[in-house]
């Protein structure tokens, strides 16, 4: 009996202890973008428009798009002979094509085998993998990220550098240069190669040259987040200009690539992380460490999307088709920018709207205040984040006039 009572008391004490394991965990803050999506879905108005959460490209009818080059690639790989694991480093063919896209078809760095590269879980996964690499081999460093950008929760201390200028709705280039200069020598920086997310503001070619020069003087290391190559301007070479400038200035660089936007493979989560090293021996060592880090993180990257990408980029005809299709997507977004600006100007808006067409890529930082955004939602059933960021993919020829009229109404007294 005594033993049984002792066991019962131990059981009660153990149960009480176990019940407290998760007691102090608070709910995570609600994602503001998901909140916009929920509110839009609940709205019964026939006039409602969602320009807040469409991070995926939709056509002029508001429908999601699967590229024909992707459909053809899927037909070719249907019935693939194996569904086994890829190596930890991913698909060799996909990586080869990714490097040519980022560094150039005739890159001397590819020929000299100076690039350590692994397949990653899209661009976000590539950035996360790099952060773990930085944390392991440069634990006393931090990474500088632009204001504004999306957070990367990776355990690496984060600093910010000035980027977006709210008054001009453009680039705060003087502030950016001062912050680069004042950062400790040998700092890590996250740069967006093109179509900066979320602002759509990019440095000019000459500004990129000045940034590169200052990086050289300070010995900083740039990690280029390139999620929109081809999708920004319609020309993959033009969209990689910043990377080419840094390469010509003899920097060692990192590149995080994604195929979500430019190939419409949002759900496949396929990307590539590459690090340019001093020589082949160093590249071999760096790649081995990246694979070692990836092993407990996700072990093996996904197969299907990698097959699609290597098939499209590895076949001259399919690649030609992809280049045509990605330009169509980019041109539609650019066209919506022009239409929104022209509609606002034709309505006699007293505000300047040239920043809409000066910015590039999926998103436009409109400059509207949270209160103005609230009016758009409450009075016109137009949904976006309270930062005033507009997803251009949510606009089409049917609704751009309505949206412009609503924006004019809520901003004309500003």
From TrEMBL:
GO CC term, one of those recorded: mitochondrion
EC top class, as a word: transferase
InterPro entries the record matches: Aminotransferase_I/II_large, Asp_trans, NHTrfase_class1_PyrdxlP-BS, PyrdxlP-dep_Trfase, PyrdxlP-dep_Trfase_major, PyrdxlP-dep_Trfase_small
Cofactor(s) for this UniProt protein: pyridoxal 5'-phosphate
Enzyme Commission number(s): 2.6.1.1
A Pfam family of this chain: Aminotran_1_2
Name of this protein: Aspartate aminotransferase
Family membership: Belongs to the class-I pyridoxal-phosphate-dependent aminotransferase family.
Keyword set, alphabetical order: Aminotransferase, Pyridoxal phosphate, Transferase
Gene Ontology biological process terms in this record: amino acid metabolic process
Record's function text: Important for the metabolism of amino acids and Krebs-cycle related organic acids. In plants, it is involved in nitrogen metabolism and in aspects of carbon and energy metabolism.
SUPFAM superfamilies with a match to the protein in the record: PLP-dependent transferases (SSF53383)
PANTHER family per UniProt: ASPARTATE AMINOTRANSFERASE (PTHR11879), ASPARTATE AMINOTRANSFERASE, MITOCHONDRIAL (PTHR11879:SF54)
Entry superkingdom: Eukaryota
NCBIfam families referenced in this protein's UniProt entry, alphabetically: PRK09257.1 (NF006719)
A molecular function GO annotation: L-aspartate:2-oxoglutarate aminotransferase activity
Species this chain originates from: Medicago truncatula
Aminotransferase class I/classII large domain segment(s): 57-407
Taxonomic path: Eukaryota, Viridiplantae, Streptophyta, Embryophyta, Tracheophyta
Miscellaneous notes: In eukaryotes there are cytoplasmic, mitochondrial and chloroplastic isozymes.
